[in-house]
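Sample pair:
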Amino acid sequence: MDGLAPPRPLEAADFDAARAVADGWFGHPVGLTLHRLFFDQLGPHGVWIAREDGAPAGFLLGLVSASEPDLAYVHLHAVDPALRGQGVGATLYREFGRRAAERGCTRVRALAAPHREGSIAFHRALGFEGPLEAGYLGPGEDRIVFERALPIP
């Protein structure tokens, strides 16, 4: 990935830069999905990739489950639309999976809305599988609950 710095853990100072680009990258307001908690308290679990000039290229918010210690959970990942299809997203997931495996995780889970065709294709390309679960996030909030074993090749 030419022109990009190596992936690193999230830091609290990354929050403002992520907030500044997230709505545009997603094409809609992300609201509290991009919660400061992931940067301030869970930063070491997440992954940040920047351009060489320091501008964000992609980030992943995730954690190791407290109730299922063998499970790493991806809450959100975002990649600059200009860089999609160039391996940034896969790099975020591989780095997250690598660090989660070092903490004892053997599997990783991520969600996708059924209308997010790009996200579904991305997760399937990384070897994720999972069912559509009606009402997973509440009434009318169906999600595909993807999961796969670690490591992510």
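The chain has a mean pLDDT of 96.
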